[in-house]
Amino acid sequence: MNGVNDVNGESGRRGRPRRPETDTRILQATVELLGESGYGALSIEAVAARAGVTRPTVYRRWPDKAHLVVDALAQTVPVAPAPDSGDLRADLHDLARGLVDRLIRTGLARIILAVHADSFGHQDLAVPLRNLYLRPRLETITDVIARAVDRGDLPPHTSPATARDLLAGPIFYRWLVSGDLTDTDVEELADTTWRALTGQEQGP
Fold it and tell me: Is there a contact between 51 and 28 (Cβ–Cβ < 8 Å)?
C-alpha cells in the first residue's frame, strides 16, 4: 500500500492518533518546495503531492498555507539554547557561529529571508511568522544580553533588539554582498558587535 493509501486509511478512522512520520514528510516537502519555487508559488496541493498524502491530511494538521510554512521553518530550525559561558564576547561569538552554521551554511537562510520578504503586507503570514518563529528565537540573544547586564558587563539600559541587529544584520548583509562568509569574517563581525555594545576600542 502506498503513502497516499496509507493516509487515506488513517483518515477514515475517527480518533486514530496522527502519525509523526506523516507530519515529517509534509514539513520536509514544504521546505523543499519553498526552496524550489518560493512562498507565493507554494500550494497545499503541491505539498500534499510531494509528501504523498491528500489535501485533507494537510488541512487536518494546519489551517492554512501560512501556518504550515511557519511550522515547517520552526521545526527545521529549532530554538537554540542561549550560550552561557560567563563571558559576553565568547557568547556573541557562539551566537554568530550558530547563525552561520544553522542558517547560511545549510542553505536555509535563503529560504527564510525569502519568506520574510513575502510576509510584508500579508498579515496572514507576518503574524504567525513573527509570533511563532521569530519571537522564540530572539529570546536566545535576549537571555545572553540579560545575563551580561546582570554581571555588570553591559549597562542596564542595553537593548536586546539593538544587540540582535548589531550581530545578525552585518552577518547577513556580508553574506548577501559577498556570497560567502569565512570563519574570519564571522569572528570579526562578532568582535565588532562586542566592541559596539561594551564601548571597547579593540578586542583583547
Answer: yes
pLDDT at 45 over 90: yes
173 and 189 Cβ atoms separated by less than 8 Å: no
Indicate if the pLDDT at residue 119 is higher than 50: yes
Q: Count of alpha carbons within 13 Å of 59, Cβ hemisphere only?
A: 7
The answer to whether the CB of 126 falls within 8 A of the CB of 120 is yes
- Is 2 contained in some domain? no
C-beta of residue 201 within 8 angstroms of C-beta of residue 192? no
Specify the pLDDT at position 101. Answer: 95
DSSP 1: -
Residue 138 within a domain: yes
Would you tell me the crossing angle of helices 3-11 and 20-41 to the nearest 10 degrees? 110
Question: Residue 7 — pLDDT band, cuts 50, 70, 90?
Answer: very low
135 and 71 fall within a common domain:
no
